[in-house]
Write a structure and sequence with these properties.
Layout lengths: L6 E12 L2 E12 L3 E5 L6 H9 L6 E6 L2 E2 L10 E5 L10 H11 L4 H14 L15 H13 L5 E5 L7 H18 L3 E5 L2 H7 L2 E6 L2 E6 L1 H6 L4 H6 L4 E8 L2 E4 L2 E4 L8 E6 L4 E4 L7 E11 L2 E8 L4 E7 H7 L6 E6 L3 E4 L1
Parallel strand pairs: 3-8, 3-9, 6-7, 7-8
Antiparallel strand pairs: 1-2, 1-4, 4-5, 9-10, 11-12, 11-14, 12-13, 14-20, 15-19, 16-17, 16-19, 17-18
Helix pairs in contact: 2-3, 2-4, 3-4
Bound molecules: adenosine-5'-triphosphate.
Length: about 350
């Protein structure tokens, strides 16, 4: 793997097995200094295990982890300059906010006035001025996680590891906190690794996303590439809704009824699966606008989107997502004839 001076973390051929079960299966990646990387994947895919190996909380079965060019694979957790925040990493219940934040400094022998000064600065950084003497039980869930973050930052780590830090909070609060986290990262530029199974969270905060499945990296790319050019069928299906059809490649195409999907990268005869997103399906009631004929069999309203189920005249079924404004003007009703175009699909060999 290419070495760059600005690299903060190098993970090489990382493997972790638990009693013969391979949780992390030969993962390699690098993180540049100041980058915000997210490990995104379903439950049980091995994301947390990767993070725990980097933190020093798990010993890899094999492989190597470097932080700032130094091999830390065997360095104990307290000597790795990492700060971490976990979903269930509770604050010390018997300590107030200031003592919680300054705990790591106390352990390192920093004098009281110095560590309180630092803790107050950090409290300002996480937007919780004035809460110095509150006990954890007197804080909201979101405030607690901000205090946990301030506590992780206090010893000035070289690396921040976040494992589903907002996982226990409600959707609205999670959205607020991830926007806040992104802004905070802009300000402090600390190399950060986040583990989440929430694709929206990953898309919003990350410079780069590693999509993990069955202990392997399926894709390592910028968020827009992960969404627009998913490397594998798994990624395409995991990071957004999809219509999925099966077919065989013939002369660089997969045919599905009247539709033709380009598959020039696959030889004729390859069994293939075609995925296309419901919001890449264009539906109109006007024949003259083009498209193949079908009929609406169901309409559901999902806030900003209308979901149309369509049965094509040639027998195929698909789902389309129509933005509310467009749908409102289009006169879509159950049973109505419509004309359908598909803009953009991904074809994978199976
Ligand atoms: P989640 O989002 O649910 O936390 P994850 O992607 O972070 O999932 P891991 O926690 O890394 O997944 O777990 C990966 C696999 O390794 C799982 O099948 C899990 O049961 C297993 N595993 C993790 N830790 C241990 C352990 N200490 N002993 C045995 N098996 C483990």
């Amino acid at each position: 793997m290419e070495r760059k001076k600005s690299m903060s973390i190098h993970v090489e051929n990382l493997k972790k097995s638990f009693n013969g079960f391979t949780a992390v299966d030969n993962i390699s990646f690098a993180v540049e200094r100041g980058e915000f990387i997210t490990l995104l994947g379903p439950s049980g895919s091995g994301k947390s295990t990767v993070l725990r190996c980097i933190a020093g909380l798990e010993t890899p079965t094999s492989g190597r982890i470097e932080v700032k060019g130094e091999d830390v694979t065997k360095v104990p957790v307290q000597e790795r300059k990492v700060g971490f925040v976990f979903q269930h990493f509770a604050l010390f219940r018997h300590m107030n906010v200031l003592d919680n934040i300054s705990f790591g400094l106390k352990v390192r022998g920093v004098k009281k006035d110095k560590r309180y000064e630092k803790a107050k600065d950090l409290l300002g950084l996480v937007g919780l001025e004035g809460l110095e003497t509150r006990m954890p039980s007197q804080l909201s869930g979101g405030q607690r996680q901000r205090v946990a973050l301030a506590r992780a930052l206090a010893p000035e780590p070289e690396l921040l590891l976040l494992d589903e830090p907002f996982g226990a909070l409600d959707t609205r609060l999670r959205k607020e906190l991830r926007t806040w986290l992104k802004e905070l990262h802009h300000r402090i530029q600390l190399t950060t690794l986040l583990v989440t199974h929430d694709q929206d969270e990953a898309f919003e905060v990350s410079d780069r996303i590693l999509v993990i499945n069955h202990g392997r990296v399926e894709q390592n790319a910028q968020p827009q590439n992960v969404f627009n050019e998913p490397a594998t069928e798994f990624v395409a299906a995991f990071v957004g809704e999809t219509n999925r059809i099966k077919g065989i490649v013939r002369d660089g195409e997969v045919a599905w009824g009247h539709f033709r999907f380009k598959a020039v990268h696959l030889p004729s005869g390859t069994k293939a699966v075609v995925l296309f997103r419901p919001n890449d399906v264009y539906v109109t009631t006007h024949k003259e606008r083009g498209g193949w004929p079908g009929r609406i069999t169901d309409i559901r309203f999902l806030g900003a989107t209308e979901v149309l189920e369509i049965l094509m005249d040639d027998g195929g079924k698909l789902t389309a997502h129509i933005p509310k404004g467009v749908a409102g003007l289009s006169g879509f009703v159950n049973g109505k004839q419509v004309f359908v175009l598909i803009a953009g699909a991904h074809v994978y060999a199976v």
